[in-house]
Amino acid sequence: MGRFDSYLLAMRIFSEIKQTNNKMTNNKLIAEFMGINVVTEDDIRANKNPTISSYEGYLEEDLEYHSSWDWLMPVVKKCMITGDNTDYWDDIFDALSLLSINAVYGEVVEFIKRTNLNKQYGRI
Question: How far apart are CA 23 and CA 56, in angstroms?
Answer without folding.
Answer: 22
